[in-house]
Write a structure and sequence with these properties.
This protein folds into 2 domains: 329 residues, 2-enoyl-CoA Hydratase, Chain A, domain 1 (Alpha-Beta Complex), CATH 3.90.226.10; 84 residues, Lipocalin (Beta Barrel). With 494 residues, it is an alpha+beta fold. Helix content is 30%, strand content 25%.
């Protein structure tokens, strides 16, 4: 990262809130342009967590997801301590001081401070007997004023200090890395769907510094796709470095994606895509992004960036509405930490962000229908653009299959199923309880899935399905096998 002609190195150490350190070190009043050739080490601080007990701010990625992902597994096993009136007052004082010093909007910080102090004086927290109950109420009251879902106060069980029998920094980093690795850095699912549509289910944006090889492998797997679906419906956020890496595969030229403005240092940090990636780019591949109300923070930024760049079609629900990068703040004398929003996102195209409003999809559907909707749209576009008749027929068959699976299974009574039972040339249809079963010769038995209008899907196989035809009186008289390449094979009932 270059600052006024000099190179500013990111710092991963904990630091006091004077001055607040953003994802990388900041100089007052300057704009930092992250060169497209380099990824910012925006989460190095996360991987170098220290446990000193004095006032500390730790540089953290955009959202709580990574904090949860890297939390120590033993924390939840410790019972929360009780908290008395003096402790409650001290905790409120320090949190208010930190908010006024570092929260992105000073007036809001002052309003939050006045509100929780008023609540404290009125005895609103007197019956909060332990730190879990107390911090939960503080979170609720702070969010009531700020409407900022990134802002949270939590009980933070203290780990043993260095030299007191606890794990070293290196051991902690190894444990955190292993926990992320065991979750495959949130790359949950990769698939080649019907019509050569690539699918990536990504449940968080892990730091590229550690998850880069996994991300590169995923994007190279998807490189031959004719269309791409990125599923962020369960993604709560994460690191801007992963946003940069993945988006670099989707854009041909270095592109300014987003900026973070930090009030305390009066500085702006820019985030750009890279000019070069490992493996082929997918810059000409149409992209669909799936969203839900659970899509939050960095996942919203990814969606918002691509929407404003007109690079992706968003399908699903309006996202959660959290646009502020956060830092972890640990109190001096009490095992309490604050997820403290220290900056605000600024999109270079819209000039604003999605805080409080969320990101609206182009096509609004319930989250559970988003994948099928996006897949159908992708197939329809590919079919419309396909010049080869045989390939177009396959794509149209895939479109029909997606539509049929959206409405299947259609409930049929035993008597309705019995109408299809019989022998049709080499094909035999039987009923096994509530299932209609297909068998050709001595081949495997396949349970047919009723999709309505005498059409049945062939189990999980999307390359073949069956249509029954009736005579004038309504009796089933013929079975037609439908293949993805457009072929039809018909046999009359014997």
């Amino acid at each position: 990262m270059r600052t006024n002609g000099t190179v500013a190195r990111c710092s991963g150490s904990w630091c006091r809130p004077r001055p607040v350190r953003a994802a990388c070190c900041a100089a007052v009043g300057t704009v930092h342009h992250l060169e497209p050739r380099r990824m910012p080490v925006s989460t190095e601080g996360l991987m170098r967590l220290r446990t000193a007990s004095l006032r500390h701010l730790v540089p953290v990625v955009v959202v709580v997801t990574i904090l949860l992902l890297t939390s120590m597994p033993s924390a939840a096993q410790v019972p929360p301590p009780s908290v008395d009136a003096a402790a409650r007052a001290a905790i409120v004082d320090e949190i208010v001081s930190a908010l006024e010093e570092a929260y992105i909007f000073l007036e809001t910080a002052e309003a939050m401070g006045a509100h929780v102090r008023e609540r404290l004086a009125a005895g609103a927290y007197d019956d909060a007997g332990d730190l879990v109950a107390f911090t939960d109420r503080l979170t609720r009251d702070l969010q009531e004023v700020s409407k900022d879902l990134h802002l949270r106060v939590s009980w933070d069980p203290r780990r043993p200090e260095d030299g007191a029998g606890g794990p070293s920094d290196e051991e902690r980093r190894a444990m955190q890395l292993e926990q992320m690795r065991s979750q495959n850095f949130c790359f949950d699912r990769l698939e080649r769907m019907a019509g050569n549509v690539g699918y990536l289910k990504l449940d968080c944006f892990a730091p590229a510094e550690v998850a880069g090889p996994t991300a590169i492998a995923a994007m190279n797997f998807l490189a031959n796709s004719d269309a791409l679906i990125i599923d962020l419906r369960a993604n709560g956020g994460g690191s801007p470095s992963m946003i940069q890496l993945l988006t670099s595969y989707l854009l041909e030229e270095p592109t300014h994606l987003n900026s973070f403005y930090v009030r305390q240092s009066d500085s702006t940090q820019q985030f750009w895509t890279q000019a070069w990636v490992q493996g082929p780019k997918l810059s000409d591949v149409p992209v669909w992004v799936l969203t839900s109300g659970r899509t939050f923070s960095a996942a919203e930024e990814f969606s918002y960036n691509l929407r404003n760049l007109e690079r992706a079609n968003l399908v699903g629900e309006t996202t959660g509405g959290g646009a502020h990068p956060v830092q972890g703040y640990r109190l001096d004398e009490h095992p309490v930490s604050v997820s403290l929003p220290y900056g605000r996102a600024i999109n270079p195209i819209s000039g604003t962000n999605w805080e409080g409003t969320g990101v609206e999809p182009h096509v609004a559907v319930p989250a559970g229908e988003a994948l099928a909707t996006a897949h159908r749209q992708a197939l329809e576009r590919l079919a419309a653009e396909e010049g080869d008749p045989q390939r177009r027929a396959r794509l149209e068959f895939a479109v029909q299959t997606v539509e049929l699976r959206q409405r299947a299974p259609v409930a049929l009574s035993p008597s309705q199923l019995d109408q299809y039972v019989g022998t049709f040339g080499p094909r035999r249809i039987t009923r096994d309880g509530a299932d209609l079963v297909y068998q050709r010769g001595e081949g495997a038995r396949v349970v047919l899935v009723p999709a309505g209008d005498d059409v049945f899907l062939f189990g999980a196989d999307d390359q073949f399905r069956i249509r029954f035809e009736r005579v004038a009186g309504g009796e089933v008289a013929r079975l037609v096998g439908l293949y993805a390449d457009g072929r039809e094979e018909a046999h009359s009932r014997e």
